[in-house]
């Protein structure tokens, strides 16, 4: 197994760590029990190969980068000199410090790198190195494997999509929800409260097969426009009351249910109290999940959304908008192990 170091972004710290756990589980890895690097916002992970470290960065929303320790047994200057033998253009920075911060240790590592045969390039480096001090007397060197494309989430924010509503889930939080469910390529994912399609879009970008239901025909049409705009195709999106509808073509079994129920918004369209509606819909569909699969619900608070047959594994409150807070909850059928 290969040890990697994930730097989370500082947004919603509890959710960010859980997102990393789910993303790594989806790639047949786990959070590491032992790591040379510890500290706030740092999550050590173990995966079977380097390529999966790159895939972790491609999956995550609430993170900045993934790196690996360089020659853990060597002094940082010696490690930097050895790395310089590759002849690549590089930049050295201190982990967590603003770009451009003057730092004697960083300068010395850069010199060692040049002595080894490498080149320092602050503008267009081929590789980035990070200096980390887990303790005042101990310094480690990390090599960046991949950077999280945080701009991609801003580019598909709701105001930029063809169909939108005033209040919608930001793409970063939609991706975090899908990672909580450890959604994998090819998984069958259901959102029984489809809305604008923000959640299913993130599942589709992870390579999942998408199924959605909404009682509002405008939402069904609009969500399909948004998915098409993002280059994502749904297997089937159906109009109807998710408590009773049985869309033709829906599979017998799903790999995950992930949903952001329409509390106080579209719930009135089916004449139901919001909390009651959520319970009824989830009870209607929970029997269609494969063993060990997860249900992730973004709830406004209050009692559990599922009965005693389900274990609530986590509950993390997150402010979604200025006046709107959601609890990210993950449920798994009691007695079934999680995937991974």
What percent of the residues sit in helical stretches (DSSP H or I)?
25-40%
What gross morphology would you assign? elongated
Strand order of the largest sheet: 2-3-1-4-8-7-5-6
H and E string:
EHEEHEHEHEEEHHEHEHEEHEEE
Count of helical segments?
A: 9
Largest sheet: 8 strands, mixed
Terminal CA distance: 14 Å
- Determine and state the CATH class of the largest domain: Alpha Beta
Q: Based on the coordinates given, report the CATH architecture of the largest domain.
A: 3-Layer(aba) Sandwich
Q: List how many beta strands DSSP finds.
A: 15
- What is the name of the CATH topology of the largest domain? Rossmann fold
Radius of gyration from CA coordinates:
22 Å
Going by CATH, what is the homologous superfamily of the largest domain? Vaccinia Virus protein VP39
Instruction: Give start-end ranges of low-pLDDT stretches.
Output: none
% residues in beta strands: 25-35%
Q: Structural class of the secondary structure composition?
A: alpha/beta
Overall tally of structural domains: 2
The overall pLDDT average reads 90
Q: Topology, pairings included?
A:
Blueprint: E1 2-8, H1 13-26, E2 30-31, E3 42-47, H2 50-59, E4 63-69, H3 76-84, E5 89-94, H4 104-116, E6 119-120, E7 127-135, E8 138-147, H5 150-155, H6 171-180, E9 188-191, H7 198-205, E10 209-214, H8 217-229, E11 236-239, E12 254-259, H9 274-285, E13 289-299, E14 310-321, E15 324-333
Parallel strand pairs: 5-6, 5-7, 9-10, 9-12, 10-11, 12-13
Antiparallel strand pairs: 1-3, 1-4, 2-3, 4-8, 7-8, 13-15, 14-15
């Amino acid at each position: 197994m290969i040890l990697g170091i994930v730097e989370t972004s500082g947004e919603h710290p509890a959710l960010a760590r859980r997102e990393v756990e789910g993303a790594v589980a989806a790639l047949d890895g786990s959070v590491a029990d032992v790591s040379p690097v510890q500290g706030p916002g740092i999550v050590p992970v173990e995966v079977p190969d380097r390529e999966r470290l790159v895939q972790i960065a491609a999956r995550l929303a609430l993170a900045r980068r993934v790196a690996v320790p360089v020659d853990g047994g060597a002094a940082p200057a010696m490690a930097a000199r050895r790395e310089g033998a590759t002849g690549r253009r590089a930049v050295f920075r201190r982990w967590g410090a603003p770009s451009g911060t003057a730092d004697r240790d960083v300068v010395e590592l850069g010199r060692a790198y040049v002595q080894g045969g490498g080149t320092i390039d602050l503008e267009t480096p081929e590789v980035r190195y990070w200096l980390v001090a887990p303790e005042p007397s101990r310094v480690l060197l990390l090599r960046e494997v991949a950077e999280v494309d945080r701009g991609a989430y801003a580019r598909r924010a709701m105001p930029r999509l063809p169909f939108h509503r005033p209040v919608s889930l930001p793409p970063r939080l939609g991706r975090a929800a899908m990672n909580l469910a450890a959604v994998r390529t090819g998984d069958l994912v259901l959102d029984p409260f489809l809305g604008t399609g923000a959640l299913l879009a993130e599942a589709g970008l992870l390579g999942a097969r998408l199924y959605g239901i909404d009682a509002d025909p405008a939402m069904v049409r609009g969500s399909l426009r948004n998915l098409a705009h993002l280059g994502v195709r749904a297997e089937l999106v159906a109009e109807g009351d998710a408590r009773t509808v049985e869309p033709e073509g829906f599979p017998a079994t799903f790999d995950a249910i992930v949903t952001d129920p329409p509390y106080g918004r579209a719930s009135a369209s089916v004449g139901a109290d919001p909390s009651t509606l959520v319970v009824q819909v989830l009870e209607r569909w929970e029997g269609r999940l494969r063993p060990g699969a997860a249900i992730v619900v973004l709830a406004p608070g209050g009692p559990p959304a599922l009965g005693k047959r389900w274990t609530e594994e986590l509950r993390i409150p997150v402010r979604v908008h200025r006046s709107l807070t959601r609890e990210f909850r993950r449920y798994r059928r009691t007695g079934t192990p999680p995937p991974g």
